[in-house]
Design a protein that fits this description.
Elements: H1 5-13, E1 22-26, H2 36-45, E2 50-54, H3 58-70, H4 95-102, H5 106-109, H6 112-122, H7 126-133, H8 139-149, H9 157-164, H10 172-184, H11 194-203, H12 207-215, E3 220-221, E4 227-228, H13 231-237
Parallel strand pairs: 1-2
Antiparallel strand pairs: 3-4
Helix pairs in contact: 1-2, 3-12, 6-7, 6-8, 10-11
Length: 238
Protein backbone atom coordinates (compact mmCIF):
# COMPACT_ATOMS: atom_id res chain seq x y z
CA UNK A 1 0.00 0.00 0.00
CA UNK A 2 1.17 3.53 -0.76
CA UNK A 3 -0.87 5.09 2.03
CA UNK A 4 2.19 6.89 3.41
CA UNK A 5 5.25 8.47 1.79
CA UNK A 6 7.43 6.09 3.79
CA UNK A 7 5.67 3.09 2.27
CA UNK A 8 6.02 4.60 -1.19
CA UNK A 9 9.74 5.11 -0.59
CA UNK A 10 10.20 1.52 0.56
CA UNK A 11 8.36 0.25 -2.50
CA UNK A 12 10.33 2.40 -4.94
CA UNK A 13 13.62 1.29 -3.39
CA UNK A 14 12.95 -2.18 -4.75
CA UNK A 15 13.32 -0.88 -8.30
CA UNK A 16 16.40 1.29 -7.92
CA UNK A 17 19.08 0.29 -10.38
CA UNK A 18 16.63 -1.43 -12.72
CA UNK A 19 16.41 -0.41 -16.36
CA UNK A 20 12.64 -0.35 -16.67
CA UNK A 21 10.92 2.63 -15.08
CA UNK A 22 7.65 2.11 -13.24
CA UNK A 23 4.64 4.26 -12.53
CA UNK A 24 3.21 3.76 -9.04
CA UNK A 25 -0.18 5.19 -8.15
CA UNK A 26 -1.77 5.74 -4.75
CA UNK A 27 -5.53 5.21 -4.80
CA UNK A 28 -7.82 8.21 -4.15
CA UNK A 29 -8.53 7.58 -0.48
CA UNK A 30 -5.17 6.13 0.53
CA UNK A 31 -3.18 9.37 0.74
CA UNK A 32 -3.57 12.63 2.64
CA UNK A 33 -3.25 16.15 1.26
CA UNK A 34 -0.92 17.19 4.08
CA UNK A 35 1.61 14.57 3.02
CA UNK A 36 2.09 15.84 -0.55
CA UNK A 37 5.48 17.41 0.21
CA UNK A 38 6.70 14.09 1.66
CA UNK A 39 5.51 12.19 -1.42
CA UNK A 40 7.24 14.77 -3.64
CA UNK A 41 10.51 14.26 -1.78
CA UNK A 42 10.23 10.49 -2.23
CA UNK A 43 9.41 10.86 -5.92
CA UNK A 44 12.37 13.18 -6.43
CA UNK A 45 14.80 10.64 -4.99
CA UNK A 46 13.32 7.86 -7.11
CA UNK A 47 13.01 9.80 -10.37
CA UNK A 48 15.46 7.48 -12.17
CA UNK A 49 13.60 4.30 -11.27
CA UNK A 50 9.98 5.37 -11.40
CA UNK A 51 7.29 7.98 -11.08
CA UNK A 52 4.70 8.42 -8.38
CA UNK A 53 1.09 9.50 -8.90
CA UNK A 54 -1.54 10.38 -6.31
CA UNK A 55 -4.95 9.73 -7.85
CA UNK A 56 -7.67 12.13 -6.74
CA UNK A 57 -11.42 12.23 -7.11
CA UNK A 58 -13.24 15.60 -6.92
CA UNK A 59 -13.57 15.56 -3.13
CA UNK A 60 -9.82 15.13 -2.62
CA UNK A 61 -9.11 17.71 -5.35
CA UNK A 62 -11.28 20.21 -3.50
CA UNK A 63 -9.59 19.38 -0.21
CA UNK A 64 -6.27 20.22 -1.89
CA UNK A 65 -7.72 23.47 -3.26
CA UNK A 66 -8.83 24.58 0.21
CA UNK A 67 -5.45 23.67 1.73
CA UNK A 68 -3.60 25.62 -0.96
CA UNK A 69 -5.77 28.71 -0.53
CA UNK A 70 -5.35 28.59 3.25
CA UNK A 71 -1.58 28.19 2.98
CA UNK A 72 -1.70 24.82 4.73
CA UNK A 73 -0.04 23.12 1.76
CA UNK A 74 2.39 24.55 -0.77
CA UNK A 75 3.55 23.12 -4.08
CA UNK A 76 6.71 25.26 -3.97
CA UNK A 77 9.66 25.21 -1.59
CA UNK A 78 11.18 28.02 0.46
CA UNK A 79 12.99 29.34 -2.64
CA UNK A 80 9.78 29.53 -4.65
CA UNK A 81 10.72 26.50 -6.76
CA UNK A 82 8.23 23.77 -7.62
CA UNK A 83 8.56 20.71 -5.38
CA UNK A 84 8.33 18.37 -8.35
CA UNK A 85 4.55 18.20 -8.05
CA UNK A 86 2.12 18.70 -10.90
CA UNK A 87 -1.67 18.73 -10.58
CA UNK A 88 -2.93 17.11 -13.78
CA UNK A 89 -6.69 16.90 -14.34
CA UNK A 90 -8.24 14.66 -16.97
CA UNK A 91 -8.26 17.01 -19.97
CA UNK A 92 -11.44 17.80 -21.87
CA UNK A 93 -11.84 16.23 -25.28
CA UNK A 94 -10.50 18.07 -28.32
CA UNK A 95 -11.80 18.21 -31.91
CA UNK A 96 -9.14 15.67 -32.90
CA UNK A 97 -10.25 13.31 -30.13
CA UNK A 98 -13.87 13.51 -31.28
CA UNK A 99 -12.81 13.02 -34.90
CA UNK A 100 -10.93 9.81 -34.13
CA UNK A 101 -13.58 8.54 -31.71
CA UNK A 102 -16.24 8.76 -34.42
CA UNK A 103 -14.08 6.41 -36.48
CA UNK A 104 -16.32 4.99 -39.25
CA UNK A 105 -18.94 7.72 -38.96
CA UNK A 106 -17.14 9.68 -41.64
CA UNK A 107 -19.95 12.15 -42.34
CA UNK A 108 -19.93 13.48 -38.78
CA UNK A 109 -16.18 13.16 -38.17
CA UNK A 110 -15.38 15.20 -41.29
CA UNK A 111 -17.83 17.97 -40.37
CA UNK A 112 -16.10 20.59 -38.25
CA UNK A 113 -19.46 22.10 -37.28
CA UNK A 114 -20.78 18.71 -36.15
CA UNK A 115 -17.70 17.98 -34.03
CA UNK A 116 -17.86 21.48 -32.57
CA UNK A 117 -21.50 20.89 -31.68
CA UNK A 118 -20.63 17.68 -29.85
CA UNK A 119 -17.90 19.41 -27.86
CA UNK A 120 -20.14 22.35 -26.99
CA UNK A 121 -22.99 20.06 -25.90
CA UNK A 122 -20.69 17.91 -23.75
CA UNK A 123 -18.35 20.63 -22.42
CA UNK A 124 -15.65 18.18 -23.48
CA UNK A 125 -16.57 15.54 -20.87
CA UNK A 126 -15.66 12.15 -22.33
CA UNK A 127 -18.61 10.21 -20.96
CA UNK A 128 -21.07 12.69 -22.44
CA UNK A 129 -19.23 12.71 -25.79
CA UNK A 130 -19.51 8.92 -25.89
CA UNK A 131 -23.22 9.08 -25.10
CA UNK A 132 -23.86 11.64 -27.84
CA UNK A 133 -21.93 9.59 -30.39
CA UNK A 134 -23.78 6.36 -29.67
CA UNK A 135 -26.12 4.90 -32.26
CA UNK A 136 -26.57 6.29 -35.76
CA UNK A 137 -25.49 9.88 -35.14
CA UNK A 138 -26.15 12.26 -38.03
CA UNK A 139 -24.54 15.58 -38.88
CA UNK A 140 -27.82 17.34 -38.21
CA UNK A 141 -28.19 15.73 -34.77
CA UNK A 142 -24.61 16.63 -33.85
CA UNK A 143 -25.16 20.26 -34.83
CA UNK A 144 -28.38 20.34 -32.81
CA UNK A 145 -26.73 18.76 -29.75
CA UNK A 146 -26.01 22.05 -27.93
CA UNK A 147 -29.67 23.07 -27.95
CA UNK A 148 -30.66 19.61 -26.72
CA UNK A 149 -28.01 19.76 -23.98
CA UNK A 150 -29.60 22.90 -22.57
CA UNK A 151 -32.75 20.87 -21.91
CA UNK A 152 -31.25 17.50 -20.97
CA UNK A 153 -27.58 17.42 -19.98
CA UNK A 154 -27.36 20.83 -18.31
CA UNK A 155 -30.65 22.71 -17.98
CA UNK A 156 -29.11 24.55 -15.02
CA UNK A 157 -25.87 24.65 -13.07
CA UNK A 158 -27.20 22.48 -10.24
CA UNK A 159 -27.97 19.68 -12.71
CA UNK A 160 -24.54 19.96 -14.29
CA UNK A 161 -22.78 19.94 -10.92
CA UNK A 162 -24.57 16.74 -9.96
CA UNK A 163 -23.61 15.02 -13.21
CA UNK A 164 -19.93 15.93 -13.02
CA UNK A 165 -19.58 15.00 -9.34
CA UNK A 166 -19.26 18.37 -7.64
CA UNK A 167 -18.39 17.52 -4.01
CA UNK A 168 -20.98 18.21 -1.32
CA UNK A 169 -18.21 20.02 0.58
CA UNK A 170 -18.48 22.87 -1.92
CA UNK A 171 -21.25 24.81 -0.22
CA UNK A 172 -23.54 27.44 -1.73
CA UNK A 173 -21.35 30.39 -0.74
CA UNK A 174 -18.28 28.83 -2.38
CA UNK A 175 -20.24 27.94 -5.51
CA UNK A 176 -21.45 31.54 -5.71
CA UNK A 177 -17.87 32.85 -5.61
CA UNK A 178 -16.77 30.30 -8.21
CA UNK A 179 -19.62 31.28 -10.50
CA UNK A 180 -18.84 34.97 -10.05
CA UNK A 181 -15.24 34.31 -11.09
CA UNK A 182 -16.33 32.38 -14.18
CA UNK A 183 -18.87 35.08 -15.06
CA UNK A 184 -16.38 37.94 -14.78
CA UNK A 185 -13.50 36.14 -16.50
CA UNK A 186 -13.20 37.00 -20.18
CA UNK A 187 -12.53 34.13 -22.55
CA UNK A 188 -8.98 34.54 -23.84
CA UNK A 189 -7.71 36.02 -20.58
CA UNK A 190 -4.03 35.23 -20.26
CA UNK A 191 -3.12 32.87 -17.45
CA UNK A 192 -1.07 34.34 -14.59
CA UNK A 193 -1.98 37.85 -15.65
CA UNK A 194 -3.01 40.92 -13.69
CA UNK A 195 -6.45 40.69 -15.30
CA UNK A 196 -7.05 37.18 -13.95
CA UNK A 197 -5.67 38.17 -10.54
CA UNK A 198 -8.11 41.07 -10.43
CA UNK A 199 -11.06 38.81 -11.22
CA UNK A 200 -9.93 36.31 -8.57
CA UNK A 201 -9.71 39.08 -6.00
CA UNK A 202 -13.11 40.46 -6.98
CA UNK A 203 -14.75 37.06 -6.68
CA UNK A 204 -12.93 36.23 -3.45
CA UNK A 205 -11.25 33.02 -4.58
CA UNK A 206 -7.64 31.85 -4.51
CA UNK A 207 -5.40 30.00 -6.97
CA UNK A 208 -6.29 26.67 -5.38
CA UNK A 209 -9.95 27.21 -6.23
CA UNK A 210 -9.06 28.19 -9.80
CA UNK A 211 -7.10 24.96 -10.05
CA UNK A 212 -10.16 23.08 -8.77
CA UNK A 213 -12.36 24.68 -11.46
CA UNK A 214 -9.90 23.36 -14.05
CA UNK A 215 -10.03 19.94 -12.40
CA UNK A 216 -13.82 19.93 -12.70
CA UNK A 217 -13.74 21.00 -16.36
CA UNK A 218 -15.55 24.27 -15.64
CA UNK A 219 -12.48 26.28 -16.66
CA UNK A 220 -10.45 25.06 -19.63
CA UNK A 221 -7.38 25.89 -21.68
CA UNK A 222 -8.02 28.38 -24.46
CA UNK A 223 -5.84 29.24 -27.43
CA UNK A 224 -2.27 29.87 -26.42
CA UNK A 225 -1.68 30.44 -22.74
CA UNK A 226 -5.26 31.55 -22.00
CA UNK A 227 -8.43 30.49 -20.20
CA UNK A 228 -11.90 29.85 -21.52
CA UNK A 229 -15.23 28.86 -19.98
CA UNK A 230 -17.16 26.15 -21.87
CA UNK A 231 -19.92 27.78 -23.91
CA UNK A 232 -22.67 25.70 -22.31
CA UNK A 233 -21.49 26.78 -18.85
CA UNK A 234 -21.15 30.37 -19.98
CA UNK A 235 -24.79 30.49 -21.09
CA UNK A 236 -25.98 29.16 -17.72
CA UNK A 237 -23.98 31.80 -15.87
CA UNK A 238 -25.87 34.65 -17.52
Amino acid sequence: SLNTAQNADAYLRKFRGTVQKRLLAATPHSWKVGAIADYAAVAGKASKSGRLALIALPDRAYELAVALDRGEVSLVNERGEMRGVRVVPIPPWTPDAVHFYLDENVAVSESADACDGLLEASCGFGQEVARLCAGHLTVEAAKAAPAAAEKNFAPDLASLYKKIGMPDLVDASVRTRMEEFLTLLDDGAEKRSAAVDEVMQGAGIGPGTVQFLVWMGLLQDGAGNTWKVPRLVRRMLR
